[in-house]
Amino acid sequence: MTSKVFRATAIRGAPLDLFARLTAATTNSMTASPVAAEGYLLKQADCASISVKAYANSTQIGTTQTPSVASTIYDTLQTAAIWGTVGSSGGGNARYQVPASLLDSTSPEVRVDISVTLTDGTVAPWLIDVTLQQATS
Predict the structure, then answer these.
(1) Exposed, middle or buried, 80 (CB in 10 Å: 0-12/13-18/19+)?
(2) How is the beta sheet containing 16-20 ordered, strand by strand?
(3) Does residue 130 surpass a pLDDT of 70?
(4) Domain limits, the chain
(5) Which CATH number fits domain 5-133: 2.60.40.10, 3.40.50.980, 2.70.70.10, 2.40.100.10?
(6) Model pLDDT for residues 104-126, shown as the tens digit of each residue
(7) Residues 127/115, Cβ–Cβ less than 8 Å
(8) With 111 labelled, which of 4, 62, 74, 126 sits at a CA distance of 20 to 30 A?
(9) What is the DSSP code string of 46-111?
């Protein structure tokens, strides 16, 4: 599977909420994405596990995070205002808060690599390049 690399901006050393619509070529339910070219929506039953790593200059920051599928993947599309542009473009089905510790780097950019391992063993990647900014007082 290939993945588009998303971009975000965050305050250095502060948590970052991420929202997305994760899809695959085939899923258990075969529920189509609202954007047909994206494939089929991932649901909790499609996902075996999730791992999150963050990198600055190709060096991993902290330890690998393993959020639960139930806390990250939604079985119905979410469209509330908090979901931003993904919500207004048909809805999102994945939400994750990157811990502040993974964004506390002196590097100007951090790559967040979220790997959703599906029940068939394939991996659905969710990649985000985060530009870090200093908080202003």
Answers:
(1) exposed
(2) 16-20, 92-98, 73-78
(3) yes
(4) 5-133
(5) 2.60.40.10
(6) 999 999 999 999 999 999 999 99
(7) no
(8) 74
(9) GEEEEEEEEEETTEEEEEEE---HHHHEEEEEE-SGGGHHHHHTT-EEEEEEE-GGGG--SSSEEE
